[in-house]
Amino acid sequence: MQRRFLAFGFAVALTACGGSAIPAATVSQQEFNSAAAVDAAKKPQSVYWTLFAGFSSPQVQIASVPLHAKSKVKSLYNNPYNKMSYSSGMHVDSSGRLWVLVFGPYSGNPGSVYVFDLPLTNTSAPKYTFALLGTSDPDHLTFDKSGNLWINSHGNNEVLEYTGPFTQSGQISPATTLAVGIASPSGVALDAHGNVYVANNASTGKNSIAVFKAPVSNKKRVCVVFVPSRPNANPGVVLFAPTWEISARAKKILY
To answer: Which domain holds residue 174?
Structure first.
């Protein structure tokens, strides 16, 4: 399965929803992490990434920061400790733990997320495991400033919010389900104001990002922003660059 990812720096206010403009995003370095996760709490820093691959391939790969052409990469495979399979989205939370989306015991329907203490090693086992009820083939996750978890769900064209405290393993149910204006969501991000941005991988022939203005509700009008792209390329993960990145990358699309 091939999935394309897109990084989009929102340096300008979005006014297509009507009414007042959505302020330009001001976010932390952590929000810029998505398909890869940077362990910012420890020095020297490490970067972790996934391959969305089966048991015979690495589930997580690790290298020291900064990356360069001769960086040494450590590969972690599925084993009786981590039990990871088809690892995809990952994020380091505010407490420094690594959250990894996996197919889990339900083969992705619903998906699961495993929470690890860092550093990640061959004998690391999840501190918590959560079955994400309501999801189907999720592969991207992020957190809002309150610590709530947001997940995309390819299989049923939804984005879901799960509320904490995330201190006991088990099945968790969504507190919010967004579906209006969403088509094959491939990524989700929130800005400092609580607005939610969803990258649509399929939207009736147009590439787009659906914007849910805070306070977020599935009943409110959704702004769908067209994203120009190369032929046959669809938006994947939408990210917010830190403020020092935004000014240099305004409206720049990376493939």
So the answer is: 7-254
The number of folded domains in the chain is 1
Q: Is residue 119 part of a domain?
A: yes
Model pLDDT, residue 224: 77
Strand extents, DSSP E, the chain: 7-8, 36-39, 46-49, 60-64, 74-76, 90-92, 98-102, 112-116, 128-132, 141-143, 149-153, 158-162, 170-172, 176-178, 185-190, 196-200, 208-212, 223-226, 253-254
Kindly report the average pLDDT of the chain as a whole number.
78
- Rounded distance between C-alpha atoms, residue 211 and residue 230, angstroms: 22
We report the CATH number of the domain holding residue 183 as 2.120.10
Read off the pTM: 0.79
99-130 residue pLDDT tens:
999 998 899 999 999 999 999 999 999 999 99
Q: Is residue 1 part of a domain?
A: no
